[in-house]
From TrEMBL, chains A, B:
This is Recombination protein RecR. InterPro entries: DNA_Rcmb_RecR, Rcmb_RecR, Rcmb_RecR_Znf, TOPRIM_dom, TOPRIM_RecR. It comes from Nitratireductor basaltis. Residues 83-178 form the Toprim domain. HAMAP family: RecR. The keyword Glycosyltransferase does not apply. One of its GO terms (biological process) is DNA repair. Keywords: DNA damage, DNA recombination, DNA repair, Metal-binding, Zinc, Zinc-finger. May play a role in DNA repair. It seems to be involved in an RecBC-independent recombinational process of DNA repair. It may act with RecF and RecO. One of its GO terms (molecular function) is zinc ion binding. Belongs to the RecR family. SMART domains: TOPRIM (SM00493). The keyword tRNA processing does not apply.
Length: 202, 202
């Protein structure tokens, strides 16, 4: 655009909104204009909510979840059972499983998958802290809810090896997750069914 | 969701993001998580940009555009010619035309269209201020860049009547705009062509 259409503050807002997943450059303009028009109902509240969340968000030192408290809401929830840990690659998978499932359990977020070609080794993931949690005792089942990709399955095998000295059952999600698919994109029914018919990992 | 997954600040952020056009409830979760992960690069800057824009944004009292200054950037731009005014329904149309066109002119934003059934009459739109701008003199052409809808065309006829006492040429966008279509959704080539071959309004 050769000539300025709106003030620099609005142009900058549009540029940053365009970087939000789900919005492109054109949607960012529409979004900005909608916010401007709904100044009291949406723009001010969203602006305040962003400032507050950006300020308060932290990574849970126990499980790797993101939240505004550390330990996180899930780790401190007294109604969840400690005996089952669901291991996920990413926080988005944790959120997807929470939406899909009625299991009142706890999680462990790896923060990725083993990927030697990308230089991601065991120490780059939250695997050591997972082993520590199991070593503390009280965990009887680990559900490996990793993506059905090569990297996900490699990571699952590695974790199973690391846990072989412990009295813990290691399971994985039922085949029902499409091969090569990512948990995060699945519908909740598929996810819930896959979780229910999970099988022993061998 | 029966049990809390994340702190109330994050849940509130997701709820408000879901109201932004282009994002639904699920995209809002992905967007929130992306923001959290890109805290320094995106979350803080976007939060600051929103606060600043929300604080500073205002409606131009001369043309009806939204900007962070009043009069707006377009009204105060000395490189634009005063002789041509493009009349649009909405600020989004102004932005679309600016992106599409090389015309260095000024605008007038009506803020809607005449719609007796919805109780929108001439005094609910910025029509009186348009007539005043023409009465000031210096405007030789009014381009009615309203949507090709019944309401848009009704509004165009009304404005043409109101301007019949002035020495001003009233034109409209070339037929090239699909009938029933909204300017805002058109590609820039179509909009530029329609603007170039505009015809006398009669
Ligand atoms: Zn936690
Ligand atoms: Zn203006």
């Amino acid at each position: 655009m050769p000539k300025p259409t709106a003030g620099p503050e609005i142009e900058r807002l549009i540029q940053l909104l365009a970087k939000v997943p789900g919005l492109g450059p054109r949607s960012a303009r529409r979004a900005a204009l909608h916010l401007i028009k709904k100044k009291e109902q949406l723009f001010f509240p969203l602006s305040a909510a962003m400032a507050e969340a950006a300020e308060k968000v932290k990574v849970c030192t126990r499980c790797g979840n993101v939240d505004t408290s550390d330990p996180c809401t899930i780790c401190t929830d007294p109604r969840r059972e400690d005996a089952t840990l669901i291991v996920v690659e990413d926080v988005s998978d944790l959120w997807a499983l929470e939406r899909a499932s009625a299991m009142n359990v706890r999680y462990h977020v790896l923060g990725g998958t083993l990927s030697p070609l990308d230089g991601v080794g065991p120490d780059d993931l939250n695997i050591r802290s997972l082993v520590s949690r199991v070593a503390e005792g009280g965990v009887s089942e680990i559900i490996l809810a990793v993506n059905a990709t090569v990297e996900g399955q490699t990571t699952a095998h590695y974790i199973t090896d690391q846990l072989s000295d412990f009295e813990v059952k290691v399971t994985r999600l039922a085949h029902g997750v499409p091969v090569g698919g990512e948990l995060d994109y699945l519908d909740e029914g598929t996810l819930a069914a896959a979780l229910k018919s999970r099988t022993a990992f061998d």
